[in-house]
């Protein structure tokens, strides 16, 4: 910051753009990152606008702070990045409420330790988790009637190509599906309405884009034949979490968007050249936003017009350009956009998808009615689906909406948010050079990636709050060594000017997030005992069962005691402990840990969990409650006695 402020002849925006361009020029990228030209589009507007709009975290704008005892107005559902988790924040306060273990192991909850969580995660033959790492990127939730219905949220694992579902009544992961035939699984989005049966006005499918080209099958053949590599778009059933079908495309896919009528899904694409090395991925001047005609794809699957890959039984249809030249039969449509776009987002008026340029200072507005017209053979040129392509600033990535016709796009290289009006942008693109589409600019700290606004991608976008995920925090927080936190910034967008009201450090590295009105989500505070087949209904049912060298301990917890004071096993036994929390009081969770045996997990009120381990160390092992529950919490113990 000190160095930035010492540059007297350059505005902050000009300095950031110039210094970044100089750095990129060394690797040959400057041509793709053309700056907004003087006298060009309005994106070259007064660079001081951002500084003028910036307000201190106090004294202006809505107050984000909640008094003790006050609840937040929104849930923020955040990805956890390479922690493999999902996070729940209260907004506008920014208070972190919960970390949901998904693709990671968690010592507190026992995720990855209990038998129930292992069954969801998937295991190797020896019972250990199949994977030990995850990389969550994008979080999206289920819809009904064009808005969130509070049932589910989904998050992806980019590393191991997995899709996880989180139940929003308990904020816990209940299913994980590994996608076949793909790598670099990145963007996801649920459909908002059934594409075939319009009477089904809720989420039925989740669409998944993949980035990396791989051979099909990826079993060692075609290793040195990149021209045979490919990427697949995947459809997963929202209820069963089974893979329905896949569609082969040209290029890599980044993010995913879906239309409100359910008919279209799309992914912005880079590397339509199908290159292997980065310089090959930027040779073309334009890439694409590929659209998927869902009803046609599913009809093709019904008609048997598909192949399978390797051992996978999933139907794979051909969505490549060459196979879809005739619009009337095409499964896909490739709308050209500037090279290497990053992000595609659906406007809440249901009319447009917006692709951000990344290596171009532009955003492309694509009209969905015209895309459908192209599929019907009523539009002679796919380029006519483009309603606007306007300059915004350097490094546009992601876009949010306020429900008042305005879009908010992150400018990674400018370290700014730009507020722009979609209708005015369309007018400008249509030739009205008096149309002023850029409404406001706001400096953020630093290099913003994802952004989202309250209820942004629903028909109920309310234009109250905007969150901005900044990839670098540098001098914003107390130094903690080489690894810095990231910086989530909160912006009041209720008025004409964006007002920055709060900063929050976050553990690296979150990506995308959504902001949901709190009344959309109805949680359960106590489990139903009948939901658990292994549950102990009464402490009197506590017992030790032996079948050969397999021993099962049926145990209950009620503050401040476990139902068995001790239980004996023999060295070499395979021991399964099934624990039911029989307390019915909200917020009365118990834990269960066994020293030296890698056992630690919690059970919430009326919940049952189990663990299995081999008793290979003779001796006394005190099993104790790890979660504070009662004044006699420290006395809440049982003895595991392992006999020789």
Automatic annotation (TrEMBL):
Task: Cite the EC number.
Answer: 1.7.2.4
Q: Which InterPro entries match?
A: CcO_II-like_C (IPR002429), Cupredoxin (IPR008972), EfeO_Cupredoxin (IPR028096), N2O_reductase_N (IPR011045), N2OR_C (IPR034205), NO_Rdtase (IPR023644), Nos_propeller (IPR041114), NOS_propeller_2 (IPR041142)
Q: Which GO terms describe its biological process?
A: denitrification pathway
Protein source organism = Pseudogulbenkiania subflava DSM 22618
The segment(s) forming the Cytochrome oxidase subunit II copper A binding domain are 548-644
Q: Its membrane topology, per UniProt?
A: Lipid-anchor
Name the family the entry cites: Belongs to the NosZ family. In the C-terminal section; belongs to the cytochrome c oxidase subunit 2 family.
Highest taxon of source: Bacteria
Assembly, in brief, is: Homodimer.
Pathway(s)? Nitrogen metabolism; nitrate reduction (denitrification); dinitrogen from nitrate: step 4/4
Q: What is this protein called?
A: Nitrous-oxide reductase
